[in-house]
Design brief:
mainly beta, flat, three-stranded antiparallel β-sheet
């Protein structure tokens, strides 16, 4: 697993500022996956990888109280 700040490459993601673009990539060997029927088309040396990217909300305070709008 790798976590990266794409906006400020090389810095620790815990130091990200508001709206920095962050990316998480996770890879695991296919041999660790037991619930898939993909064994018909992949071998044990295959790696599965997933990547997601989003923007940092660091620096913005989380609402202390949330008001739910009244129904119509």
């Amino acid at each position: 697993m790798t976590v990266s700040d794409l906006t400020h490459a090389g810095i620790d993601c815990t130091l990200a500022t508001e709206l920095d673009q962050l990316q998480v990539t996770v890879s695991l060997p296919f041999s660790a996956v037991r619930w898939s029927a993909c064994t018909l088309v992949a071998n044990s040396s295959t790696k599965l990888t997933a990547t997601t990217t989003w923007y940092s909300n660091n620096g913005q305070s989380y609402p202390q109280s949330i008001s739910v709008p009244q129904a119509y």
